[in-house]
Amino acid sequence: MSKLGNIGAKLHRGEVSYDFIGKRKVWFTVSLILVAVSVIGLAVRGLALGIEFKGGTEYQTSVKVTDSTIDDFTNAVKATNAQDLGDPVVTTVGSDKVRIQTRPLSQDDITKVRVAIADQAGVAENQVSTSQIGASWGDQIANKAVLALIVFLVLVFGVIWIYFREPKASMAAIIALLHDVLITVGVYALIGFDVTPATVIGVLTILGYSLYDTVVVFDKVRENTRGITGSNRFTYSDATNLAVNQTVVRSINTTLIALMPVGSILVVGTVVLGTGPLKDLSLALFVGIAVGAYSSVFIAPALLATFKEREPGMQALRRRVLAKRAQQSGSAAAAAAPAAALVGGGGTATAVRPQDRPKAGTPVPSSRPVKSTGAAGRPQPSRKPRSKRGK
């Protein structure tokens, strides 16, 4: 964790940077593929709506719950061979009750299943309660969920617009939210899990989580881009990329912390309990949190930068920043050119390489005329007589 903390500190200070925004086309392509797979899954397989949405028959009776209760009642109901029975949904309620849900059945099949449940539980037939659920109740839940989603999106759009004073931030956040919901619902279609009211609650919950993470990143973007048009250092995309790098470690930490308990609930609901509201709720939360973290880092900031870069002011800023960088690159190249010319011998002066310098103790030829011999046997400087020097 300390290593991750050091990386996070370097990312926050700008010492290490990953180009999230520059590779936006890669992230957009990945998201388009995931959305396309989700849409195909919804179109081909559809959603496995629970009994609350499509109607059916529900049985309840008292029984001592054991590890094999769910399997025993599932096999007992299937053994009736009722028409259009499908896969019955068996859940335990506490430690002394079991609930069985089936598709809509004829009156004869309802009686047949009721007798089988009574035999398995070891109770009288009249101790098995039976209730038929109409599809209209599920339609009411679905309509209210859609209405709640629309109201939520409208309010989110307005609140983000007011908080950031930027409608493009609202557009980017809403697109990221729809991206998260569509992929989550597509996973349900591909896996075949039942969609129940608990699933709807889970989907509405992940909207809030995904939005929270996105707002944190946008807040850092606003801080980095405050007064950006008065400077020529960064483009809007550069400042946005810096904001993502400064918050990415935080996003990873919060996502992992949120996924661990939700993943545990998913394992318990799927492996231990087999079925029930825990599984329906935890799968939506698990997928939604993971996709929401992805969109808040890779999709929402990239969308915001794309929208903002189309503004004339940001385009002018980009031209100034690129011109300044080109000028700095040219100055650096011009400063390096004379040194290169000296080394290559192209100028009037000749550069002396370190390896060409004389070593200590090596005789150096004098620029003045010298005699070949002297008193000490060494070459001595000579000088013309005064008469021959023009005096």
Number of alpha- plus pi-helical segments: 11
When the domains are counted, the total is 2
The first-to-last residue Cα distance is 89 Å
**How many beta strands in the DSSP annotation?**
8
- Mean model confidence by pLDDT: 79
Strand content bin: 5-15%
The radius of gyration over CA amounts to: 38 Å
**Strands of the largest sheet, in order across it?**
3-4-2-5
- Could you give me the name of the CATH homologous superfamily of the largest domain? Multidrug efflux transporter AcrB transmembrane domain
CATH topology of the largest domain: Multidrug efflux transporter AcrB transmembrane fold
At the first level of CATH, the class of the largest domain is Mainly Alpha
Series of H and E elements = HHEHEHEEHEHHEHHHHEE
CATH architectural label of the largest domain: Up-down Bundle
Which regions have little confidence, pLDDT < 50, spanning 5+ residues? 342-356
Structural class: alpha+beta
Organism: Kribbella italica
Subunit structure: Forms a complex with SecD. Part of the essential Sec protein translocation apparatus which comprises SecA, SecYEG and auxiliary proteins SecDF. Other proteins may also be involved.
GO cellular component, one term: plasma membrane
Keywords: Cell membrane, Membrane, Protein transport, Translocation, Transmembrane, Transmembrane helix, Transport
